[in-house]
């Protein structure tokens, strides 16, 4: 396969010489000096390996090989222009359409406000939101399926750039009638790890944060779940019914704690705080809409 491709600008210059019959006029059309244009054409002849022009005092004439090349050069330049126009259209669409993936907690409790603020500032932007667990957010961003992701985990996925957008805290919650809700002392980390909990699915930011926090603090893994459910809402229903305690984001249980449907239980020996992050491919710059959404997410929230 040929790798020494001719310079497209030189091909465009050659087309103009063929049209005008003059290197000087072609050079002026492209904003070049005649000497610079002549050097480019010399280089093009060397790259192609055939003589293209006969130069004399009356102007420049195409050689037979030059006439053959001229026909093909027009096709090549036209194809390049079509490519550039297509890429420009993609850039315009990227500025107008924003693909976002967010973990469930972020999507349910933070993203609606962020997207409302983005729409108010830039009503022409169309946002496509995918709600998946944190592990899948990282995969979607890494594979280029979305422009921007929001995760809730202690570790940053591979090959991704990140910006912190806040800090979340996990809370141990039970039904009001559970024995933990009536005890006068915190639940120790070892007891928490040994107790079957109602848990989110594997790969969720909430479950991953708990597993990592227990491993780093006490070197233990959580017991097998009492129940494994795919959403915060389902976990809360199971806990309020008395199935077992759970560990959930305080964002997810604010209402239930306020009206008494759930009780938060103090826990000792483990830090259950976690960063919330915006993530994007390290090899690309954020598009303008994505950068705007990150600025909204990182801005101080009104109290």
Automatic annotation (TrEMBL):
UniProt entry tagged with the keyword DNA repair: no
Cross-referenced InterPro entries: LysR_HTH_N (IPR000847), LysR_subst-bd (IPR005119), WH-like_DNA-bd_sf (IPR036388), WH_DNA-bd_sf (IPR036390)
Keywords: DNA-binding, Transcription, Transcription regulation
Ranges where the HTH lysR-type domain occurs: 6-63
Protein name (record): DNA-binding transcriptional LysR family regulator
Similarity remark: Belongs to the LysR transcriptional regulatory family.
GO terms of molecular function: DNA-binding transcription factor activity; transcription cis-regulatory region binding
Highest rank taxon of the organism: Bacteria
Keyword DNA-binding belongs to the record: yes
Pfam families assigned to the protein according to its UniProt record, in alphabetical order: HTH_1, LysR_substrate
